[in-house]
Automatic annotation (TrEMBL), chain A:
<dbReference type="InterPro" id="IPR035906">
    <property type="entry name" value="MetI-like_sf"/>
</dbReference>
<feature type="transmembrane region" description="Helical">
    <location>
        <begin position="116"/>
        <end position="133"/>
    </location>
</feature>
<feature type="transmembrane region" description="Helical">
    <location>
        <begin position="208"/>
        <end position="229"/>
    </location>
</feature>
<dbReference type="Pfam" id="PF00528">
    <property type="entry name" value="BPD_transp_1"/>
</dbReference>
<feature type="transmembrane region" description="Helical">
    <location>
        <begin position="140"/>
        <end position="158"/>
    </location>
</feature>
<keyword id="KW-0812">Transmembrane</keyword>
<feature type="transmembrane region" description="Helical">
    <location>
        <begin position="349"/>
        <end position="367"/>
    </location>
</feature>
<dbReference type="GO" id="GO:0043190">
    <property type="term" value="C:ATP-binding cassette (ABC) transporter complex"/>
</dbReference>
<comment type="similarity">
    <text>Belongs to the binding-protein-dependent transport system permease family. HisMQ subfamily.</text>
</comment>
UniProtKB/TrEMBL annotation, chain B:
<comment type="similarity">
    <text>Belongs to the bacterial solute-binding protein 3 family.</text>
</comment>
<dbReference type="Pfam" id="PF00497">
    <property type="entry name" value="SBP_bac_3"/>
</dbReference>
<protein>
    <submittedName>
        <fullName>Amino acid ABC transporter substrate-binding protein</fullName>
    </submittedName>
</protein>
<dbReference type="InterPro" id="IPR001638">
    <property type="entry name" value="Solute-binding_3/MltF_N"/>
</dbReference>
<dbReference type="InterPro" id="IPR051455">
    <property type="entry name" value="Bact_solute-bind_prot3"/>
</dbReference>
<keyword id="KW-0813">Transport</keyword>
<dbReference type="GO" id="GO:0006865">
    <property type="term" value="P:amino acid transport"/>
</dbReference>
<feature type="domain" description="Solute-binding protein family 3/N-terminal">
    <location>
        <begin position="35"/>
        <end position="264"/>
    </location>
</feature>
<feature type="signal peptide">
    <location>
        <begin position="1"/>
        <end position="20"/>
    </location>
</feature>
């Protein structure tokens, strides 16, 4: 035993040869080796991607920025044979029509009202979204009660304040896009929560109503609802009775969004462990208090990605109202691009590119904000 | 939350217009409301397009303004309701609009089974061809063996087949799903000729890389009479729409323009006197004032002026009068006499 231990004993008595220095582990080269060319398939994919970017990016940049025309008064500014060089995007067209894209046909002397509406909405959104804002309870009342009333009075007109009425057929562009999506978002969240609670309720009639409503609305495409509202509904009403053409799709969109929101919220409610309900009941909380203080705050946090996803989908779905003759941003661009004063080979493309930028910025903003909120609310669960 | 809902509902429900428009009372309803509700095409070059300020312009739009001028002595008492091709007739049938001026083709089935009337034709359109100048073709009958770009599943495609078969010509159809794609393909040289309604040819030509390289051939191979539409059974209202058009035609024929209409009031020509209402009571017979035609010409102008301003030489479309010339100049526009 002793002898064996002794023979295994080892003491190194010369210096170990110095190992070669490690390959670069920091700096751009090392990063590239590790992330872009770590294996042969990885390297091939990287090269393919770089080639694709090389094929796509320069022409896009050239078309939209380098060859683009930024100023001009009519189509001659954007035609290759009058300019004498290849012409890309015709941003001068967007610049000329920008007021129409924002306000539609809203009467020019009254357009300040739309600006005020945008400012009021921005205040409301900032108040609601900025988590450290003062008096957020007041902010919620402002956003869900005061703002809708003010907006209707401001945009549609209110005699006592000497705001002349402006018919909704004159509204258009970004204004309509914002109004339709704001109505959808503002109405769908509270209604969605109510419907989700209704669907999980123990009261049979409430539950039946919620289930039927949700399943029915989810079972029809939005476009069908819009066609029904704008093409069929007038035939059912007695002759001469008409409902405002903008009001009809607004109601349709709000109902539609509520049904989808309800299912998202229900997902959150079902993810709550039973112990949370039982704990709340053991404390003697009534049903509304249990929901308000214990269940909903946790359930809604879980489904923030789903809620924002629904909002983004809704925001983009608002373009469908264009099909039933409502002048949202897309429709105003469609109407302007045929203008003979601006007809060039690139006019349509420029108009659509403008719309793409607008929608991307809005959706991207919503998505970034929700990521921030998620991170903040999940702080308690981090390990 | 509920409070907000109720308020919004009330606010928007206030705009629910309850106009009792029975069969004979469109004119009364319009007068009572103080505005004419006109169904319009929101995006057809030369016929209905909003300008940068959002004001409506175009030949069809000016027709609505002419009706408004005849009734209210003000061309701006019109509320334009943008309508798609699908919901235009419903909007008229349900009474949501008073008159539809949206490049609608007058056909027998629309006139009869839809319960509509086409009181006048304010633009005779028809399918035509556009080719490159370099092709050296002067007539559609020389298009034998040509490839033709057209839009899928439209009557355009059927008319094309009929025309080439009737003339015993060979051709090849290159069809696309949308109008934009079709023209892009023609512009890129995918086919020798491009076909659609003649008014559309001129509008599309502006989008070509080199508009001057293309010509529109003289042949018109189909009939597309476009005009205002009203509900069947209100004859008085139909008369007003019809005579608005005839007043503009007669004014052109008699040389009355927006600029000289005031001097023309002193004219001794009995036809002019009857038209401008200095003689006879023709306006009262259709429920308007006797100076109804004077108002139309004063505010909008005669047919020729409106045509040239919106689609003709005064516009970028530069459409020839062709079939829309007065009957005295070989066209089809014929204003019935005021007497």
């Amino acid at each position: 035993m002793n002898a064996a231990t002794e023979t295994l004993h080892f003491v190194r008595n010369e210096q170990v040869e110095a190992a070669p220095p490690p390959r670069l582990v920091r700096g751009p080269l090392a990063w590239m080796r590790e992330n872009l060319f770590s294996s042969i398939p990885n390297a091939l994919l990287t090269l393919a991607t770089i080639y694709l970017l090389y094929v796509i990016v320069p022409p896009v940049l050239r078309f939209f920025i380098l060859d683009a025309v930024w100023v001009g008064v009519d189509r001659d500014a954007c035609r290759a044979e009058t300019v004498g060089r290849p012409v890309g995007a015709c941003w001068a067209f967007v610049a000329d029509k920008i007021n129409y894209f924002i306000y539609g046909s809203y009467p020019i002397p009254e357009r300040w009202r739309v600006d005020v509406f945008f400012v009021l909405l921005a205040i409301g959104v900032a108040w609601m979204l900025w988590l450290n804002a003062p008096r957020r309870g007041l902010g919620a009342i402002y956003f869900f009660v005061v703002l809708p009333i003010l907006s209707v009075l401001l945009l549609a007109g209110f005699k006592p304040l000497s705001l002349p009425p402006v018919q909704t057929s004159l509204w258009g562009g970004v204004l309509v896009t914002i109004v339709v999506s704001a109505v959808g978002i503002v109405f769908s969240l509270p209604f969605g929560v109510l419907l989700a609670l209704g669907r999980r309720s123990k009261l049979p009639i409430v539950r039946l109503f919620s289930v039927v409503f949700i399943e029915f609305v989810r079972g029809v495409p939005l476009i069908t609802v819009l066609f029904m509202a704008n093409t069929m509904l007038p035939l059912f009403l007695s002759e001469g009775v008409t409902i405002d053409r903008l009001m009809r799709p607004l109601v349709g969109v709000a109902l539609f969004a509520s049904a989808y929101m309800a299912e998202v919220v229900r997902g959150g409610l079902q993810a709550m462990p039973k112990g949370q309900y039982e704990g709340a009941m053991a404390l003697g909380l009534s049903y509304p208090r249990m929901m308000y203080f214990i269940i909903l705050p946790q359930a809604l946090r879980i489904v923030i990605p789903g809620i924002v996803n629904t909002f983004i989908g809704l925001f983009k779905d608002t373009t469908l109202v264009a099909i039933v003759g409502i002048f949202d941003l897309i429709r105003t661009i469609e109407a302007s691009r045929v203008d003979p004063n601006w007809a060039t080979p690139t006019t349509s493309l420029t108009g659509y590119a403008f719309a793409a930028v607008f929608y991307f910025l809005c959706c991207w903003g919503m998505s970034r904000y929700s990521l921030g909120v998620e991170r903040r609310l999940a702080a308690g669960q981090k390990r | 939350m509920k409070k907000a809902l109720v308020t919004i509902a009330i606010g928007l429900a206030a705009s629910v217009a309850a106009t009792a428009a029975s069969a004979q009372a469109t004119l009364n309803a319009v007068k009572q409301r103080g505005t004419l509700q006109c169904g319009a095409n929101p995006s057809l070059a030369g016929f209905g397009v909003p300008d940068a300020q959002g004001n409506w312009t175009g030949l069809d739009v000016e027709f609505c303004r002419a009706i408004s001028a005849a009734i209210f002595n003000d061309p701006n008492k019109v509320r334009f309701i943008p309508l798609s091709a699908k919901d235009r007739f419903t909007a008229l049938q349900s009474g949501e609009i008073d008159v539809l001026v949206r490049n609608s083709t007058a056909t027998m089935s629309r006139d009869t089974s839809l319960g509509l009337d086409f009181p006048a034709i304010n633009y005779f359109d028809g399918q035509g061809f556009m080719v490159r100048k370099t092709l050296g073709v002067a007539s559609a009958k020389e298009l034998s063996g040509a490839s033709v770009c057209t839009q899928q599943g439209t009557t355009t495609e059927l008319n094309l087949a009929d025309f080439f078969r009737a003339n015993n010509l060979k051709y090849e159809v290159v069809a696309f799903a949308t109008a934009d794609e079709t023209f892009k393909a023609y512009d890129a040289g995918r086919c020798d000729a491009f076909t659609t309604d003649a008014s559309g040819l001129y509008a599309e030509r502006l989008k070509a890389t080199n508009p001057d390289d293309h010509i529109v051939l003289p042949e018109i191979i189909s009939k597309e009479p476009l005009g205002p539409v009203v509900r069947h059974a209100d004859n008085q209202w139909g008369d007003i729409v019809r005579w608005t058009h005839f007043a503009m035609l007669n004014a052109e024929e008699l040389g009355i323009t927006k600029a000289n209409v005031d001097q023309m009031l002193k004219s001794d020509n009995p036809e002019i006197k009857r038209l401008l209402g200095t003689e006879g009571k023709y306006g009262e017979a259709i429920g308007l004032t006797n100076d109804w035609a004077y108002r139309i010409i004063k505010h909008v102008g005669n047919y020729g002026e409106s045509f040239e301003r919106n689609v003709g030489q005064g516009s970028r479309l530069k459409i020839q009068r062709g079939q829309n010339a007065l009957w005295t100049k070989g066209g089809l526009q014929y204003g019935l006499p005021v007497r």
